[in-house]
Design goal:
By secondary structure, the chain is α+β, with helices and mostly antiparallel strands. The chain is built from 17 helices and 28 strands. About 12% of the residues have low confidence. It comes from Kitasatospora aburaviensis.
């Protein structure tokens, strides 16, 4: 080939490149349009499932899909007999491996002390962390045995009692936090559990026939009709008899109002005893369902407000079971009738279906959230084979040192005896803001000496990465604002937030909190690194969070724009359910030590190590600690990282426009002496703040304003009463303005 031919070929190749680019753009546009049409078709198919007489075959013919594809989109249209589906589900459960016992945690040894970080680290911009958004107990269901609620946020602790002026050092007391041991024992803290990874499931969850019951009125919503039932004395057996007579085949009953488990509660010393007694009310036709396979001995779940009763026909105890559950697991119905609650579930399912074509609403938000997340595990790339589960020792360390939300009532003299006002700000869908980055893989241990040997830039990078640090902290002289880092204390209080100048304490905290303590705009704190764990930065929760945020946004918009009031209410309740799916799904990753509950007939021996909750004429109700299960979805490192960032966000959150920071919010941006209360995902102050609200996850929303002067609340109960008055006053004022 001569030069002239070569030049001509190059020119022709450039022209061909242009044509290829144009063709690629056309294909991309066509694919985008095809995806849009497929999404519209899926939504319409899902919508048709709401019609009582809908048939999968007819929908398949009209849509051009197979019957299998229609059933995958709308499980309610599945023509398979219920008995066949139940047998298939039982077979899958029986084939599942049994949980392995958890080994004992290794002994805890002391850590090395590092030189103090006396300078603030350079400020690196980071998307603002998010705060937890719950004040209720987070339920974490363990499919192997029973359901266990994650511990609630710590009870209110008066911040003023943190340290007396005469003793500036706060002692953690007998509750010393574990540290990273040296030698061979320490190797287990840099390891994962052999053969245990979070894998994408190869099956589709089966929907369960569900009805909604108002136990106060007897109204039952089943499919597109409402019937009035006679519930008799409202015992579990009478409720099941009435429901199954009206809706044969029902597998799950949600109680929307009436809380029958609280009937006669005044006869018991605790509410939990009353609930346990109700769950175990004798019945001639029903018995406690003990399940099969991995669900063996599941029994009832005793909870003061949101119990779960599992029952099977006494004549066939090994047959399918029916659950009685509380609607409060998903959202507070707040007076909504059964039709609205059922419609909320329909809208929730439809919203999730737009992002997961195999989405199924399971019994609880935690189960649903974890199942949906598992279907976002990547099929390509480094983590296509699944995310490894940390060692038992490391999970135990994170459980002991990774607290959840911050709950703190700040008392005089740090705030006025009489408050000029009580202004409440609540962070919208806050967890969703902090899922873009999470720790993955096996962590690398950072010793005190290794951290001290790093350059300033390396130290800052380590703190801003996914990390968890053991530190000794000293509050700087002249500090006059709220505490920044949690300190461990004994008893149920768990964590406090020292703020008295000169106070010293040892704790664990995430990199976001440590970096804030070093680089806040008021004054840097003294932080000594005693050791830490540095993870690889990853995005295991990012896709899950994006899809849930999109579903939440769709439902939130529908709750504001729909012309029908019932639909607006249902959409709002559904948006709250998405919040629960994310919140409790994330809490499920924490996989705290399980608290197993169950019942045993009086004639049989109790399992070893149980705590008796109650007893009647036939059975004993008990609970016991069961340690960590061999759970493939146990990732406390993710929950701890989000919770740490959440606490930091209550103090300092950045508003961004692109990469530019356009504003700040949080307690540190209010005047000293104006912060009254931290409530996990929000704060209360004595004056309004100029914090913008854009309706985005993490934004601070003005939720209540109570005009003063007001006597300072001395307990959480008093604060909650004032908060309710403030919300009512603000709602009335906004109604007047409109």
């Amino acid at each position: 080939m001569d030069r002239k031919t070569y030049t001509a070929e190059l020119a022709g190749l450039r022209e061909l490149r242009t044509e290829v680019t144009a063709a690629e753009k056309a294909v991309a546009a066509a694919q985008k349009e095809l995806d849009k049409l497929n999404s519209q078709r899926a939504r319409r198919v899902a919508g048709l499932a709401g019609y009582e007489g809908a048939q999968a075959a007819a929908v398949a013919k009209a849509s051009g899909l197979s019957v299998g594809d229609v059933v995958r989109i709308a499980p309610l249209l599945d023509p398979t007999p219920a008995a066949v589906r139940a047998a298939k589900a039982d077979g899958q459960a029986a084939a599942a491996p049994a949980p392995a016992p958890a080994p004992e945690l290794v002994d805890e040894l002391a850590a090395t002390v590092a030189p103090a970080l006396t300078r603030p680290a350079p400020v690196l911009e980071q998307p603002a962390p998010a705060a937890p958004v719950t004040e209720a107990l987070a339920e974490v269901e363990d499919q192997a045995v029973a359901e266990q609620p994650a511990p609630a946020t710590a009870p209110v602790v008066p911040a003023a009692s943190v340290a007396a002026a005469s003793r500036p050092v706060v002692e953690a007391g007998p509750r010393e936090l574990p540290t990273l041991p040296e030698g061979p024992a320490g190797a287990r803290f840099e390891a994962v559990t052999t053969g245990l990874v979070s894998k994408r499931p190869a099956f589709t969850q089966q929907a369960r026939a569900t009805v909604f019951l108002d136990a106060a009125t007897g109204d039952l919503a089943v499919r597109d009709r409402v019937v009035r039932l006679d519930l008799g004395a409202r015992t579990p057996g009478e409720i099941l008899d009435a429901v199954l007579a009206a809706a044969p085949g029902t597998e799950r009953v949600y109680i929307t109002a009436g809380a029958p488990w609280h009937d006669g509660a005044e006869r018991y010393s605790t509410l939990k005893d009353a609930v346990a007694a109700w769950l175990n009310t004798p019945s001639e036709r029903w018995t406690t369902a003990v399940g099969s396979g991995r669900d063996k001995l599941a029994g009832h779940f005793v909870h003061q407000r949101q119990p779960v009763g599992r029952y099977a026909p006494a004549a066939a105890p090994d047959s399918g079971s029916t659950e009685i559950r509380s609607m409060g697991e998903w959202f507070d119905p707040d007076g909504a009738d059964v039709v609205t609650c059922r419609q909320a579930f329909t809208l929730l399912w439809q919203a999730l279906r737009r992002h997961w074509d195999d989405a199924v609403l399971m019994g609880s938000p935690s189960q649903t959230g974890r199942d949906l997340w598992s279907r976002t595990i990547p099929t390509t790339g480094k983590w296509a084979g699944g995310y490894p589960v940390l060692s038992e020792e490391l999970r135990g360390l994170l459980h002991a040192t990774g607290g959840q939300g911050r709950t703190e009532l700040i008392l005089p003299p740090r705030v006025p005896e009489r408050l000029p006002a009580l202004v409440e700000y609540d962070r919208t869908f806050a967890y969703a803001k902090h899922l873009w980055k999470s720790p993955v893989g096996t962590p690398r241990r950072i010793t005190a000496a290794a951290f001290a040997a790093m350059t300033e830039a390396e130290q800052t990078k380590a703190l801003m990465s996914c990390s968890h640090w053991n530190v000794r902290v000293t509050v700087p002289a002249g500090w006059n604002h709220v505490g920044l880092l949690p300190a461990p204390v004994t008893g149920d209080r768990a964590w406090i937030y020292p703020s008295e100048p000169g106070t010293t304490f040892t704790t664990w905290a995430g990199g976001a909190e440590i970096h804030l303590a070093l680089s806040n705009h008021i004054a840097p704190w003294k932080v000594e690194i005693l050791g830490g764990l540095l993870f690889e930065d990853g995005k295991p929760l990012d896709e899950w969070g994006k899809r849930l945020k999109s579903a939440w946004a769709d439902l939130t918009n529908l709750s504001k724009l729909h012309a029908d009031e019932r639909q607006r209410t249902a959409a709002y309740l559904a948006s709250r359910a998405v919040r629960s799916v994310l919140l409790f799904g994330l809490g499920g990753f924490a996989q705290r030590p399980r608290l197993v509950s169950g019942t045993t007939p009086l004639s049989e021996a109790l399992p070893a190590g149980v705590e008796i909750l109650g007893q009647d004429e036939t059975v004993v109700t008990w609970q016991r600690q069961a340690g960590f299960s061999r759970d493939p979805y146990a990732h406390p490192e993710w929950a701890a990282y989000v919770w740490s960032g959440a606490r930091a966000a209550l103090l300092d959150m950045k508003y961004r426009q692109g990469k530019e920071v356009i504003g700040h919010a949080g307690a540190l941006h209010a005047r000293p002496g104006t912060v009254v209360y931290f409530g996990t995902d929000g704060i209360a102050l004595t004056e309004r703040q100029p914090w913008p609200y854009r309706g985005e996850p993490g934004d601070y929303l003005l939720k209540g304003h109570l005009t003063g002067p007001i006597p300072h609340p001395t307990s959480q109960e008093q604060y909650l009463k004032l908060r309710g008055l403030g919300r009512a006053e603000l709602a009335a004022a906004e109604g007047t303005d409109q």
